[in-house]
Every structure is written in C-alpha cells, then in structure tokens.
Amino acid sequence: MYYFHSMKTNAKASPEIHPKPPWQIALIANLQEGFERTADDPTDAGAEFDHYQTVESIAAALESEGHFVYFVKGDHTLPEALMNLRPHICFNIAEGMGGDGREAQVPALCELMGIPYTSSQVVANAVSLDKTMTKRIWQQQGLPTTPYYEFVSLEDVAHADLRFPLFAKPAREGTGMGVNWKSIINDYDELITRVDWLLNTYRQPVLVEDFLPGREFTVGFIGNRGNPSNRRQSKLYDTDGYHWFPVLEIDTLSSVSPSIYGHDAKSLDIGTEGAPLYLCPADIPEALRARLIDLTRRAAEALDVRDVSRVDFRMGADGEPYLMEINTLPGLNPLLSDLCIMAAAEGMTYRTLITEILYLAAERYQLPFTPQVSASFENSRISLDWSLNKKEDVFHDESLHQPFKNKYWDEKAILGKY
Questions:
Q1: Is the separation of the CB atoms in 104 and 94 below 8 Å?
Q2: How far is 358 from 119, CA to CA, in rounded Å?
Q3: Angle formed by the axes of helices 338-346 and 350-364, to 10°?
Q4: Residue 5 reports pLDDT greater than 80
Q5: How many CB atoms lie within 10 A of CB 192?
Q6: With contact defined as beta carbons under 8 Å apart, do 138 and 323 qualify?
Q7: pTM here?
Q8: Are 102 and 85 in contact (CB under 8 A)?
C-alpha cells in the first residue's frame, strides 16, 4: 500500500481571516459555451448551465463594489483553482457536473477547504435537486403538495394507485428538462410510454404527480431568517429577515408548450413568438399573495436554504396553491431569469440583487463590511440600465397584467377561496 501525504497537514485554501473589502471573489459556474453532449445525453443536456453573458453581468455587479472577481469553472479543475486563487469568498451559481447531488458539489468543496460561499449549503442543494425527496419533506411538514409516485422501473407503474390526469418529469433535473406537451398523462398507455422514455433518456427516477390545472406562480426572495439589522441594506428586509419580490405569474397558454412551462418555453427570449407571458406583479388577491409568501417561507425553512431562492406553485382544482419545487440556485440571467424579472418589476437594480446575495453570505460568515445607509429601499432604486426595449413591453404593458383565461381551469373555481 502507498500513502500520499499532503505537503501541509489539514491543508486548506483559507486566505486572511475575516478580511475587510475589497475581497477576492471566485465566481464559480458551469457554462453552456464549450459544453459538448455525448451520444447518450438527452437533447436538452446542459440546459441548466449558464451563458457567459450571465457570468459577465454578475462579475460587473460585484466589481462595481470594488471587489476583484475571477471566473472559475465548476468542474474537475475547481479544487486546484481554489487552492491557487485562495479567494476570500465564492459566488456560486454552478449546477455541478453529474450525479444525483451535483448542485452540492461546489458547496461541499468549499466546506472542505474552509472557503465562504453564497447561497444554500450542501444538504439543502442536494435535497432540493431531488424533487421526490423535497416533496416528501414538505409533506412531513404539513405543506400542500400533490400526491405523487416515483418510478425507477416500468414494473413500479403496475403497483401504483393511479388517478388521471397525471404529470411526469425527471426527478432530478431543472430548467424544465424532460418537460413538454407529452408530460401531461391522460391514460395508462400514455403513462407507460412516457415513463419508459424518461427512464431511458435521463437514466434516473421519474416523478409522476397529479396534474394541477390552474394558474402557475413563482415566488422569489433574498434573505435569511433572523434579525436583519446588520445587513448591508437592512431596510430591504422584513423583521423575519427576508425580502419578498412581487409574485410572478407565468402564462404559457400562447407559448410553444401551452399550459406547460418546459425547457422549450423557458429558453425563448421574452417577447418573442412562442415565449410565455411573464406577469409581474401577478394580478391576484392580497390573500392569495400572502398565502404564497407564507408557504414559500415555510417551504424554504424546511430545507434550511440560504441567501436566495425561488419556489414554484400551481393552483389546484380546489382553489388552493400547491408547492411544485424549489430552486436554491435560481437563474441570474439579467434578461431572462424569473428572479431577475421579479426584481426588475419591483424596481431593484441588478447590481443591488447580486451584491445583496454576496453580503448576505458575508454576514453569515462574519466577513466585515460597511452597512449602506439609505432612508428606504425606494431611495435606492435607480433606472434599470439593463432593461432593454423588448423588456419594456413585458413590464409596462398594462394589457399583460389582466387576468387571462386558461382552457384548463375555471377562474371562479380556482380563485374562489381568495
């Protein structure tokens, strides 16, 4: 047997303890540019990876605070890169490079090396990627989520007590991967066909749940549970420690996949033919808005998420909202991502969104920074330098904020309780 000994016992890449800004920041991501699918990969493989323009936008926001930003790929070269770079903190948006807990790869490495990092920690990122495990935890916490089944083989289908229509998707994917118009299952034959295709294409369990026929919403937030008085911009947050963005409604009726917010719909630029309508703030009663925010908070705290997150809902035939899934690493593309749409609709600048995520993590790790004094959030709003003309139609056209008619739901029934 051979023993390999490090040059340094318990070696870590830890830099100066509790350094004052400006910080050396490793911006860790997986990029679509340069990603090559193998012959066995599904056609939407790599869809969850970021574009280089997103990385540049995040870096510009961080550099505007005086920090030094280094882009680092979230792949097998990451350990060596972090050892050489020795960052004060990592800004993590990496999706990981394979495995059922891949979104936890970067957090786990940062924990091992003693480097602070943004967003959720190891367990939350691993569990949230597994939609079945997430639903199981939510159920145990008494949170509303639809009945579900997880199939690892076609033989499992025969033993399930099924009630159609159903909805089928890969259990451990994001960005609408494996979701299209065939995801709605109306009978047993369709279920067998779809489950067989998903098992063979994505090589992971298939989550099948009752189909929810109502409107679709997503709720995003930044913050952490606790007193926000020591935050960079403390007035942004409520007394519980959170900042809630306006509820976003996603109208897919006129999209390339009507009533389904799948990969094909998500990949289209806002305002182009076949893209969904993004209605923010959603035209909903205050009681429903409060209910969605309360459920989001409880769902996020059940998984112990950190800094930033987004939770997806759909209304059921009983007029109640149901939790679908949570994204602990929500997209930060300034022109396309749901969270950025919500921030823009509120008037929050992209710079503020990105830097607040950074300083929320810095607060958790007790990295020192100077609080930003402002009378209120309203006073911190400035014009959106990244809001292109095509976005103005989405955010400012009043016609888009009117209730829409969905052929799969009855408006009175779905919103009757609110």
A1: no
A2: 9
A3: 110
A4: no
A5: 14
A6: yes
A7: 0.86
A8: no
